[in-house]
Design brief:
alpha+beta
């Protein structure tokens, strides 16, 4: 009888430990989801592309707006998953004689493509997951501006159609940097990030890390 009671007590201890482990697993899973949700909610991309991030004063030497049609978007699975139309604003501030700080603001829509991996690589798209995105990048250009560029340095410079296909071939691609800076100029990203929304779902694609998905 004593042996039986001891065995039952041991089983109770094991069950209690298992219950505790399960509770901790659920707790940490909940914390993980809340942390990820918090990171998604706190994607403050606009601070990264604010003038203060350039550590400069004065007016931009380039301040232009452009509409881009039919560019293609890639995801975490390494595939292209959507076509985008976007309004972008580009501002360039001169920091030193040969260095310039670039700030961009992107506001656009995406058209997901059926059968492609979702941007967060958690499943397959149906093609109905169409939504909006916003974000931009901060970059440094080391080099010199073209004295008389072929495009205005202020205002709206029009619309360009990239005409991309899903493989990433874009015969109409437009390199704004080459229109304003000498060929030997060096372009490097300091920060970049975009937030995509479909219904109540979000995917963040950023140099700080990727989070979420739209499925």
């Amino acid at each position: 009888m004593a042996k039986t009671r001891q065995t039952n007590h041991f089983h109770i201890v094991l069950l209690s430990a298992a219950a505790l482990l399960l509770s901790l697993t659920v707790l940490f899973a909940g914390i993980s989801k809340k942390t990820e949700a918090g990171l998604l909610d706190k994607f403050l991309w606009n601070k990264e592309v604010a003038k203060a991030a350039c550590d400069t004063s004065g007016a931009p030497v380039i301040s232009i707006k452009q509409r881009v049609l039919n560019t293609v978007d890639s995801g975490e699975g390494g595939n292209n998953w959507a076509f985008d139309n976007v309004n972008r604003e580009i501002k360039v501030y001169k920091q030193t004689e040969n260095t310039y700080c670039v700030l961009t603001d992107y506001q656009g829509t995406f058209d997901s493509q059926s059968g492609q991996k979702s941007p967060g690589n958690t499943g397959t798209l149906t093609g109905k997951e169409d939504g909006t995105f916003k974000g931009g990048y901060r970059a440094i250009i080391t080099g010199s501006m073209i004295t008389t560029p072929g495009f205005p340095t202020k205002g709206n410079i029009g619309t360009v159609d990239y005409s991309c296909d899903i493989s990433g071939t874009c015969p109409g691609a437009f390199s704004w940097v080459s229109k304003y800076f000498s060929p030997e100029s060096i372009f490097s990203y300091d920060w970049w990030g975009w937030e995509y929304k479909y219904k109540n779902l979000k995917w963040v694609n950023s140099s700080d890390g990727n989070k979420g998905d739209i499925i």
